[in-house]
Amino acid sequence: MGRMSRRTFALGALSTLATVPAVPTRSTAALAPGRAGPAPHPTDRAARASAGMRGVWIATVVNRDWPSRTGLAASAQRKELIAHLDRAVRDRLNTVILQVRPTADALWPSPYEPWSEYLTGTQGRNPGWDPLGTAVREAHARGLELHAWFNPYRIAQHTDPGRLTASHPARRHPDWVVPYDGRLYYNPGLPEVRAFVRQAILDAVARYPVDAVHFDDYFYPYPADGETFDDDDAYDRHGGAFSSRAAWRRDNIDTLVREMAAGIKRVRPGTRFGVSPFGVWRNASTDPRGSDTQAGVETYDDLYADTRAWVRNHWIDYIVPQLYWHIGYSAADYARLLAWWAQVAKGTRTELYIGEALYRAGAAGESSAWRDPVELSRHLTLAARYPQVRGHVFFAAADLAADPIGAMARVVADHYRGPAEPPR
């Protein structure tokens, strides 16, 4: 297949983490230490070999997974959150990745940013409880790790600053803000923005014993046809040492990642830092080091995120590329990308987990591959051939709960026969 257009590829294949629509559309072991039992079944041996990260994302932006809607009473919100944690335990997962800063807001009492509108329906309104604190405590009580998921630069799912709460930092610093493709973003090219983002995130790290800080795939926004991300002034002020605007933008994101990693280690040593990028770094037709794909989006060129370098240089503790395509998909074959990422991680100290598109299994309009409940299980079987792959994360919690065609049930039956401790 020839190179797909960016828009076609984005609409058909981008992760839900990447393109949320404006309307809600400690050591590795398969069994707990010290348990004796009969000689293992071959499937048990396979499960033990692949034991590691078994995660699920819980997205809060536009109430995608939780809370189910805005304005629920605190007790109802807490009940729904606990149900997601209990479901993770029942499916023998070991990690939940909870989105706690979806749009430059907070799911904890932050002194820097307002309470998230996805709790009460009104940005800045106190929900009457501490969701992040509760999530950490209740996850740990169930033997789950809690990774706190932050979106660094997205401010709003609209372009009207007047809709933000009056005290919002984006209203106090309008020069930090860039409207683009129907949304508001902080400008990654401003050092003061980077310092603020780091400060806001590290407040949560200082307050709570989160097991990891987690970024998704949004850095510079995904390309939109006919739109320009207006960072001319920032480039004029800060880009003089770079050969091109693209090189400067990549350095901005590299610097955010390095500074974030250093800040986490300083504030709470032992807390890990992970990123879940879009699954294609570069196509081989663009760069011989790239993957055998024909993706219309490449993180290096379009999001200015050099995810390969972050792994090779161990700037991050783990990476979860979103391989949200089926085995054999011509533009971005899961099998080929799996092999490529395994090779990237080989010999590094960066843990490789694979992001899995549970949300596509049985969804309306998907290809026949995604109507087969065995597709996801095949992914894990294939990944077990690569020692660099230390586990999988599933998008997302609402789909875990619904499991319309039993795809997750098949994964559990085939691969998660016993509990597994989170990787460390």
Explain how this protein is built:
Keywords: Signal. With 424 residues, this protein is an alpha/beta fold. It contains 15 helices and 11 strands. The strands form 2 sheets. The protein has an 8-stranded parallel barrel with strand order 1-2-3-7-8-9-10-11, surrounded by 5 helices. It has a 3-stranded antiparallel β-sheet with strand order 4-6-5, with no helix packed on it. Helix 12 links the parallel strand 9 and strand 10. The N terminus is likely disordered.
- Termini separation comes to 40 Å
> Overall 3D geometry?
globular
Binned strand content? 5-15%
Multimerization state: single chain
Radius of gyration: 21 Å
Structure class: alpha/beta
Region (Disordered): 28-48
InterPro entries: Divisome_Glycosyl_Hydrolase (IPR052177), GH (IPR017853), GHL10 (IPR003790), TAT_signal (IPR006311)
Biased composition (Low complexity): 29-38
Signal peptide: 1-22
